[in-house]
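[audit] Reproducing an earlier prediction to check determinism. Same input, same settings, fresh worker. If the tokens differ from the archived copy the diff job will pick it up downstream; this log only records the rerun itself.
[audit] input (148 residues):
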Amino acid sequence: MRRSLKTGRMSALAVVLDASAVLALLKDEEGADTVVQLLTESTVAESGHTGLLSTVNLVEVRQYASDKALAQLERADSPIAILPFTGEHASRAAALRERTRAFGLSLADRACLTLGLGTGLTVVTAEHIWLKLDVGVTVSHIRPWTLG
């Protein structure tokens, strides 16, 4: 991560990160500043992290991020905790399939939403289509809406 993730004012709960948000951060893409802001302004969870990422989403990140960026993400002092995708998560993700099919969500997308549902935390993404979802989780978008 090229950007500094220094501890900021503690004002919001930790957040759940979709792979698209993590990739924006690691690749310094549009929306990276928003991810940094969310991570630095969030309350540190019991784990000592301000961002949560499912192992399913980590697999997606590994497909597109450099080894150097991944090493920074997986450091012990990273603000992002990587959480295992459990059997319970799998059941919840499967249950979301019908409700999200029309939006074209992948298993990784549903894994992220499931983590948000299970923790009650806001899910952060770069995917505009998620703003149309009504699955019981709050979605925060990191990029401005553009027509086109």
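[audit] rerun output stored. Observation attached for the diff report: The first helix runs from residue 19 to 26.
[audit] end
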